[in-house]
Specification:
- The chain is about 35% helix and about 15% strand.
- It has helices spanning about 10-30, 50, 85-95, 135-160, 170-180; strands spanning about 60-65, 75, 80, 105-110, 115-120, 125-130, 185.
- It has a 5-stranded mixed β-sheet with strand order 3-2-1-6-7, covered by helices on one side.
- The radius of gyration is 29 Å and the shape is elongated.
Amino acid sequence: MGKKRKVPGINGSSSADIAFMLLLFFLLTTSMDTDMGLARRLPPPPDKEQVDKEFDIKKRNMLVVLISSTNQVLCGDEYVDVKQVKAKAKEFIANVNDDPSLPEKEEVDVPFFGKMMVTKSHIISLKNDRGTQYQAYINVQNELAAAYNELRDEVAKQKWGKTFAELNTEQQKAVQTIYPQKISEAEPKNYGEKKTN
């Protein structure tokens, strides 16, 4: 009888190389979803002395914006549509007519402008219920940011004929001194829940 002929086997080392190359290819060419968020600069941590102090904010200097679990917006003392938040915030921040129920004005020496009366102590407190929809919260936040942006654009156009974004750094700082963005965001709570004793 003759010898049996050996059947050549498949080289296993080359298939491992091919699998590795395919893995690299898919890792490098696949696009990954990235989380979307708000571009916000967080305030610096407070000083130790500042933590110990209690801030006494006068009622007239604070505008409370509350978003309920049903996405209704309470701005100050009245329920408003989301589209009305910007106008209410602008009226509060600017206090054009020096209304005694709106933020008090202080004299500040502003570069390029000289001495001006500004609502330096104002603060907008944004609160929401745990049941508030994320989109409703973002919409209100956008309206508040738009209020500051519009006020800053108005000042920039009056003084330099440009939008706030077109100003140089020094000019932007001056405009920010007139309208400093002060939005305080509180931790969500269940405002609609009844307390049980």
